[in-house]
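re: ur question from yesterday

yeah so i grabbed the chain u mentioned. its 401 aa long if i counted rite. heres the sequnce exactly as i have it in my notes:
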Amino acid sequence: MIGIIVKKELRRLFTDRRLVFTTLILPPVMLIVLYGVIGIGARSMITDVEEHVSTVYTVEAPDALNQAIAAAGAEVETVGTGEVDGIKEQILQGDADVLLVVDPEFESKVLNYEGGEKPNIDTYHNPSEDYSSSAHYLVQQVLGAYENQLLGERLGNPAYASVFDINRNNEEAEVMDDRKASGRLLSMLLPMMITIFLFAGAMSLGPDSIAGEKERGTMATLLMTPVGRNVIAFGKVISLGILAFLSALSSFIGIIIALPMLAESMTGDLGMNLGEFIQYGPKDYLMILAILIALEGIFVGLISVASVLAKNVKEAGTYLMPIYFVVMIAAFSNMYSTKTPEIVEYAIPVYGSILAMKSVLNFEMPMVGLLLNVGAALVVTVILVYVIKTLFEKESVMFNQ
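ran it thru and got these structure tokens back, copy pasting raw so excuse formatting
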């Protein structure tokens, strides 16, 4: 009899083309388009800054410094002290990049320095402008090298300006696990996104399945049939779980297609692409599947309880919004966490599931943590299903008395 209830709910979705489109097709398409547009825009912005030739205005700068800045790829414009205010105004408006105001007779002061106030270089740039920030970074590098050059001249040998080398012949300075490097971005974004999509998918279907039927009066008819109320309750929960999982799976596929496009276009050097992503083996996918199914049980239980208590779909949505907010906090709180979770943290409902997904994607999931997470989620789900069954047996709840 449970199978009949489940088939009825599934038929309701798959015979409604609009519902299939909005629940299963539209979410992944939106993700691919959204991430594609973001990626193209970000890559375009980075390329624009990289191709921009910075203009550096200098006042009283030695020829050696001007030549060093020009050698770094920037255009150098030498101006007089009377033009300083005008150049600063151009920097403010984003029409100029960087201004250097150097002490008169700078080099002789440096080379003949014997104590007291040191020669000075004032720099002006606009941190809110990409071109100006990029030019300022370039100038800082040039000034560092120029300072070492002058220090070497003061000491009589340019080699004396450097005390030691770093990684002179060390070709293995970067010691890392390639799999963890490729999964770093995925572990930061995917658990958060999957959790939100999983809850949103269930929330888009659950209220109409239970509260909607109460609102339309069809639930009362169903309760009058000889079918046990516990059977109806279990059928609703199981069908909602299947539909929510399909909805989350479609969004997950959209993320898998879109995320490498976004990462490559925005970073280009994170070493992440679809080929690297599929380094995850069957064991990793099975662990993620187990975590998702267990997490989905909690979500379906919470949404079903709220829907049973509500008199209509609108009221169910009101009950669910605070729960959705808590789920989002749990998802975002894990996004930037870098610490290794304690085993007991995997047992925290929802939060522990997000931690577990992150650990799997980082190839750091302990089997004890997985069992603890899935076990705790199943216990919570069983409790919620019992609450749903109890509520279905209350006339005051089911008939809105």
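noticed a couple things. The first strand starts at residue 55 and ends at 59. also The first helix runs from residue 2 to 14.
anyway ttyl
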